[in-house]
Amino acid sequence: MTRTKNAHSSIGIDFGTTNSSIALARESGGVQLANYPFAGELTDSYRSLLYLEQAREAGRDTLKSWTGPAGIERYLEAENKGRLIQSLKSFLSSRTLKTTEVFGRRRTLEELIARILKDLRGHAERQFGVQVKSAVVGRPVRFVGAENAGDDEYAETRLREAFRVAGFETVEFEMEPVAAAYYYESTLEHDELILIGDFGGGTSDFSLIHVGPTIRRRGRKPQDLLGNSGVGIAGDAFDAKIVRKLVSPVLGAGTQLRSMDKILPVPVWMYAKVEKWHHLSFLRTKETMNMLRSVEAQAVEPEKIAALVHLIREDLGYQLHRSVQAVKCELSEQPAGTFRFSDGVLELEEKVERQAFETWIGEELSQIGECVDGLLKDCGVCAGQVDKVFLTGGSSFVPAVRRIFETRFGTDRIRAGNEFTSVARGLALKARDLNR
After folding, report:
1. At residue 388, does pLDDT exceed 60?
2. pLDDT at 8
3. Whether pLDDT at 367 is above 50
């Protein structure tokens, strides 16, 4: 495809904790999503992951890397697993995690994220036929782990630097729920006050905003956005509870070991890492593996610790995540499901009731509900004044999440659509408005 030199292409990029999307708003109307080959099909969600291998070429070590769907396929094909790094966005607010060691060399978080963004940018340029040097980029209302406004500003600065390293000249940030509002507004023929709920992998974000044709005609004003709120809880927190209840006990959580003449509990910190499946690769250090072998030798149930060693050594975080997602989707559609994990060595299968799952995530559901109630209160808006509620993101499919909004606003006011790409579409529409 011929590439056009256009510094003002209307590009929107939703760089997510788990998945990313990139969209172009055409001047002639309509929004085009970039798509990517995976497993013989095309997908418009690009997994936000990086896979690295060290290879020996011409007598020296070289580092090879793949991202997104290509990274998944390379990882699954490799006999000797390299390093699979996932959910990098969730570390942006951390002032302690600035670098990680990759095959003996320290790499900055910004450098690793930029590697993913470079491939996203390259795919977009080839498909859209434009140079991608600027973009409107989504950001959560509250970054994962951020405890105050300073942490959020720090995380945004790091994300901006990653885009700069990836070759972007200008980046404008927009709150992800506001971007979803831009998309929803494009479908309206009348004005509405809407509540947007955007559920990502790491955060749940909410905005109250006036949208509609009147706003589009006169131009958006700051007072149209009544307020934003967010909480660092979403899909990953739900996943963690599934791992805690179904997986960690099989890997030795809650068991004991013999040390001298004492019976001691197996260290619990390891299982906190396992619950965050994308942290598994960080456990593959020489010190941790030596410690685990020592624990296995003293364990009352050594076979369970051996299973944990296998999970970490083989870096099976992606497979674990896939199994968790499968049962979570099943529980969104059925009153019961079966968790299955199999890699030829470690075999897990357990039935789970939706009611049990909803009990496990009860604290998280309460925090999401409190966040929504707090936003309404801060804006001086009662639930009856909200015309529609637009839900987007993967966890919006979870029935218990939807009930939070159905009980407050009524089922008839709940709207959804393009749950995984509405933010990218809205970001592209905002980019087009900025370019006019």
Report:
1. yes
2. 61
3. yes
Residue 4 reports pLDDT greater than 50: no
Nearest in space to 255 (alpha carbons), one of 299, 285, 287: 299
**pLDDT > 80? residue 277:** no
Among candidate residues 144, 79, 89, the one with its CA nearest the CA of residue 114: 89
Cα–Cα distance, 402 to 75 (Å, whole number): 35
Q: Which of 147, 205, 176, 208 is nearest to 377 (CA)?
A: 208
Among 330, 308, 331, 332, smallest CA distance to 320 is for: 308
Give the pLDDT band of residue 398 (cuts 50, 70, 90): very high
Give the position of tokens 């947007």. Answer: 196
Judge if pTM exceeds 0.90.
no
Question: Distance between CA atoms of 92 and 341, rounded to whole angstroms?
Answer: 30
pLDDT at 168 > cutoff 90 = yes
